[in-house]
Amino acid sequence: MxxxxxxxxxxxxxxxxxxxxxxRETITRVTGGMKVKADRDESSPYAAMLAAQDVAAxxxxxxxxxxxxxxxxxxxxxxxxxxxxxxxALRALARAGMKIGRIEDVTPTPSDxxxxxxxxxxxRL
Length: 125
Known about the structure:
Elements: E1 7-12, E2 15-20, E3 26-31, H1 45-62, E4 66-72, H2 84-95, E5 99-105
Parallel strand pairs: 1-4, 4-5
Antiparallel strand pairs: 1-2, 2-3
GO molecular function, one term: structural constituent of ribosome
Keywords: Ribonucleoprotein, Ribosomal protein
Organism: Fusarium oxysporum f. sp. raphani 54005
């Protein structure tokens, strides 16, 4: 099991980044929009799966067969839960034969945040 200098795959929105664990060096970066033609499909779980398969193929070329995974949602004032693409990307990496070490959620959570959009009376339907 070669973790390749502690390589780590970051899944954020529909983007899969493969780099070293410090985050300084990026080996490959694939987005959902690079894999599908239609604009409406860019943010789909299918596009995330295709992006993760590309990352897994690049790992195989480099001789890396194990990864640590970091999953990130928007955080801050946005949503704190990762979207549906994160799960399908994770499954695609596992199905491609990559061994998965740690799965870590690195979503930024504010201790005290800036004001949310919507105004004083909130969103009115």
